[in-house]
Amino acid sequence: RFDLHQPLYVCPSCQHQWSPDVKELMRSGYWPASVTSSTLYTLDLLSSFQELKVISPGFSRQAFAKLLEHRTKIGGRSGQINGDTLQRSFLEYSYASFEEEQLCCGAPFTCPACTPEMLAVSVDGNRKLYRFRRDTSSDDPAFFEGLFVAEDAAVSRFVETIQKATQGKGSCGDSQWTAARETSRKASKLDEEGMEVAVCRHGFLLKALNMYRGEIFAYPLYLQKELMPAKAQFFAMDVACKYWPYLEKAASVLPALKELTRMKPFLSVMHARAHATKCE
Questions:
Q1: 173, exposed or middle or buried, with CB in 10 Å at 0-12, 13-18, 19+?
Q2: Could you point out which of 15, 28, 188, 266 has its C-alpha 20 to 30 Å from the C-alpha of 77?
């Protein structure tokens, strides 16, 4: 943390006074944290925190603020870092960067190593990312609607179209895991039961959706359809042996999904140990 003072320019002829405004501050590499620009953050600081959040998602804002305070004391200066102001400025910077990337026709959530053709896509559900119906969340539209998490309305329409598939339990061998299936009951007290996420083999997040009916087969099918332009060769899933017949049946009903059957199902070694001998 530094204590800075903005310059004040005075014309010797007409005595007109001028000081930098928000545009000049941003051109100089500063991000204003308030309307009066009483607090400024360097763009390098915000971009570094953004990279840290990508590399280590569990890195908290409080820990980053403590790190800045420690570096301030080492430099012989003093002053507390306002964590709330830092968080608000970082969110504003992230949204502004997203809008800039959209104007420049950027492609977020893409793996450089998997471009232009991807080798494998892995899809799995996380039931711990649930949300109760009675919470304090706002109904305002999200700033990043449909960017990474698919729109709920589009997913619901797709699930209704795929409901012609055959019913099944989605288990293999003597496994007792609650794996994906073709039908599932909706939880009574939960609004969102979790998230279904697709990643590449390098761990890059590609696409996700909110689960409302458990880990049904229609959810990974939607993600596989959305990632069709990536031209992945393998599709990894914990119950790929049961999902692939479901995909073939759905492709026979909807010819638009026929191209997905060109991929090859892939079952990881960790999940294969609990499946039947044929899968292992």
A1: middle
A2: 28
